[in-house]
Amino acid sequence: MEKKEFKAESKRLLDMMINSIYTHNEIFLRELISNASDATDKLYYNALQNGGAGLNRDDLPIEILPDKAARTLTITDKGCGMTRDELENNLGIIANSGSFAFKKEHDLGSDVDIIGQFGVGFYSAFMVAKKIVVVSKSVDDPQAWRWESEGADGYTIDTADKSDNGTEITLYLKDSTEDENYDQYLETYTLRNLIKKYSDYIRYPITMDIEKSRDWEEGEEHGEDQQYATYIDHETINSMIPVWKKTKAELGEKEYEEFYKAKFNDYEDPARCIHQNVEGAVTYTALMFVPARAPFNYYSKDYEKGLQLYSNGVMIMEKCADLLPDYFSFVKGLVDSPDLSLNISREMLQHDRQLKAIAASLEKKIKSDLLNMQKNDREKYEAFFKNFGLQIKLGIYSSYGMKKDLLQDLLVYYSSSEKKPVTLDEYVGRMKESQKYIYYACGESTAKLDMLPQTELLRDKGFEILYLTDEPDEFVLKSMHDYKEKEFRSVSDADLDMEDDGEKEEFKKTAEDNKSLFDFMKEHLGDSVKEVRLSNRLKSHPVCLTSDGAISLEMEKVLNAMPNNTEKIKAERVLEINANHPIFAALTKAYAEDKDKAAKLTDILFAQASLIEGIGVDDPVAYANAVCSLLAE
Ligand code: ADP
Fold it and tell me: Which distant-in-sequence residues (6+ apart) come within 8 Å of 232 by Cβ?
């Protein structure tokens, strides 16, 4: 019989596929099963259209038949089958091979997983088979045909004996090597896992004979060493109905939760289930979940984001990272879209556009759902934010504020006045008429911030302060700059603008009156501080340390704690003194009468301000001795 050559383009693709050491060669089974399913669909819908009642999906199984002795794997369907011409046209060429053209045009090299992402159909079987025999009988032809090929050098077509409609594809598996185990595709265990993984929601039963064992029945004869009787069970492996194809009304909360736990290996119910059906420019169904707890590796490099991607119930990709932005990387779930076909003839670029459109729509949906939770289930939202808020903050920071509009309303920070996390919108809604800024304080814990001298007067005057306790917090607010045109301002900032005009006048006068004292103190402290000045933010505390310039004391701590930071960063320190504190009177007295004592007091006050800030003192012994010498006076 004459051997026919594959069309040139097909030949190149075949070569590429056969010769690339391809990590996902298991997808061949998915491809053959979805072809079988498509062929069965054709038959089923034709029958429906021709009024052919009585066809039942359950009677149109796709069978998987591994044969260990012959080292073959056969996939059969009862679908529409192929005529001789169809065999030749469908399997002999790859029509409009979109992926291939794309790959060639863009010279993407062999490491780009286009095959794995979008499927190449029938040809993928050559990744595992050295020879493929297709026996098919079309509904339109009384004659059955046999197509046979050993890969790139061509194929033959001949008549065959087959009376039922449908197609039977037999793969003669390649010999296993050290690197590749092809024999695994003869194991029912592996095959079952692959079917579950990729083809669980195919609408026809995928059946396979599975050897099982049972206890011996009474009186049944068996050898001493045979503990169990074995029997063959003809099992349907796939569950057939995708949960997400049911309506929300059909699905109770329990069913969503059970599905999530089983599918994503979580033992806890999800915090949130999002079921979305979209029809229009893009059509898809998404089923997404927000876990109740951050996975243990969530904030590590090991964590892989992504949603499962299905095309009409057939999984195309286990984790499609492009569907989720990093700031929503905690979302688990899947997307099923008929717009994404396994079909290679579709243009790769078009897929890409569809995918982008879906991703954009998902992003909107996730955000609106989170806002909904924030509004209607605050307790749950707070727990969510504890788990994943950091990721959202990093989203704002790492985009240099570009994602501000998208993400800012998701932020919540502990409020000094409400004693619970509040949104920026709530904060701004409560701002005093005269209030210019959104005040914040940074520190280790809300309890410590409550005791911070810098927050006392602000709180006393009825200003609300946001307490920032996550390391990146201040960087995030700085990258946002403002919220609804209200600038953020640290309680340590030089200008808090919280006094009325009279207070401002008085403050200015006291500052001027004591200028020489402050100059003296600055001189004494040398490079340790940039300035010593009168404080307008202290109430009952004597001193505090603040900073001048772009780097705050909190940022200094965070930056210097980073492992790869070799050059220490230093904020410009400013020592502030409370003129209403008794120590100030002692200081002015010492300055007038005993400069040595004034210097000693300056050292102690600077050390105390540093301690309050959590920075520590350079020489604790000198500090302790200075305090003791004053106590002993
Ligand atoms: P795709 O399925 O992406 O179009 P394939 O290479 O997988 O590409 O298959 C090419 C064509 O061969 C299919 O479009 C279909 O017409 C035909 N075909 C493949 N498998 C079968 C089958 N089991 N039964 C009937 N036709 C099939």
Answer: 209, 210, 211, 212
